[in-house]
Fold this sequence. Notes:
By secondary structure, the chain is mainly α. It contains ten helices and no strands. The two termini are 33 Å apart.
Amino acid sequence: MLAADKLELTSLIKKSATDLKGKELELSKSNFEAVGTQAAVLAGFAVCMIVKIDFPDDVNPLSSSLYYFFAVVNLVGNIACVASVACVNIMGTSLGLRGPDGSMLQAADGMHKQRERIFWAFTTALVGCALATLVLAWLKMQPVTAALCTAVVLYGVASGVKVTLHVQNLFQYKETESGKVDDVLSSETVGPEFFVRQLGVDSDTLIQLLAKIRRRRQVLLLVALARRDGLNSMVVRRQAAGTPEVIFRTSSVLLAGGQ
């Protein structure tokens, strides 16, 4: 009985920790999907920038080459972002749900570590898009119009950088301060001895608490069955066959009081 209680307690702790890691995995997956969707849209714009834009023959070759370079940087950055998101989401979720014991922890931590690489690829694509727009403005527009467009683009880039830094500082936290369940999922800390130390009680007290919880569950089950089928039904008798007499009497008293 005591061994079964300890095993049940250990399994409950592991299940709760695994569920928490599953929520972290779903959070990373949804964030990556949002970034990947935006990158896919911008990749389509980058293809149009390369294919649809034509320049006259008298355009400076260095300027047109610079434009195509930034357009390709935009395209490659977005493609790299989309590919990374697809690989991380597919392989990470597959490992977490279909992998061996402890794979949920490995999958969630691995997806968390890949976020900087994905965000940097997306940032590179945005920078390439902005620079290509600047060069295109000076190649296709009059000087006054190009200067105005340049000011607008630079203001937009500066505002984006400022907002990004502000949001990063607002939601920044240290990894050492984050909630982790790595130690909970390890074999050493999910044992009953570690849990007893965390509760600050001795093992005898914990065993008594577990016994009370088990008896209460049995009483509630018998009461529910008796209310449904009657106290003298065969179902209740079979359920009460392996329970102590005090539990059966307690359930009878509760049932009589409820009626």
